[in-house]
Amino acid sequence: MTAGQPSGHIRYGVSAEFYDLLQAEDDRRAAERRFTAAARAARTGVLDAGAGTGIVTETLVKAAAAPVHAVEPSPAMRIALLARLARLGADERARVTLYPETVGACGLREAVDLAVASNLVATLPPAERRATWRALAAALVPGGLLLFDPPPVGVPDGEESRELPPARLGTDVYAARLTRTPDRGTVAVRYDYRVERGGVVVREEHETFRLWPVEPAVLAEELAEAGLRPADTPHPDLTAARRPPHG
Predict the structure, then answer these.
(1) Tens-place pLDDT, residues 166-207
(2) Most CB atoms closer than 10 Å: which of 113, 178, 191, 221?
(3) The pairing of beta strand 229-230 with beta strand 239-242
(4) Which CATH architecture fits 15-151+214-242?
(5) Could you tell me the pTM of the whole model?
(6) What gap in Å lies between CA 11 and CA 76, rounded to an integer?
(7) Helices within 140-227 (DSSP H only)
(8) Quick one: average pLDDT of 141-157?
(9) Structural class in CATH, domain 160-211
(10) Mean pLDDT within 101-121
């Protein structure tokens, strides 16, 4: 599952309810490790493409002095995102603009020198992924930096499952199982959520997402076609690209 992404075909109607309770703290620590230094260096603006519940957005706002543009088309995710932004100080809120649409539809042109796509790229089917590269390149000023999580290279050999760490809320325990299954060249990712009270399951919910693997050579070709060039990454978990200084 992602922290959010600008694809209109995933609505997160189930997962938005559980996301922060089960994953926010781990995601917050990861965001701080991966994006803080780059955000501090931003001078023109920062784009959070696929802001989700706002975990990365909050990290970017607190680290950067520049304006932050948060893109999130999912209504369910935006509820949590706006609640998180509402808790920021007035000066911090004044630097955030929210776009309830895809990154391609938000119309940003040479508005940022840092674009972040956290847990986004793998969730995009190929045509939408290529369009997203073009939109991100257009949003960057010449010399601007793009940071993103690389998509998987291939599909798993078979079904893979793991449990997320449970979280207690009052007398209830919230938990989730994540299952990855190969499906016609893609990866089907199913989340099975459950709420237990006194050791008895009182509620269950389910949601499935799809991930599109990309070979590194294809990824490099798509970035080049969008006018982006490989760059040094500030964190080993991330892939980096830049818009050329004069392109």
Answers:
(1) 999 999 999 999 999 999 999 999 999 999 999 999 999 999
(2) 113
(3) antiparallel
(4) 3-Layer(aba) Sandwich (3.40)
(5) 0.93
(6) 7
(7) 216-225
(8) 96
(9) mainly beta
(10) 96
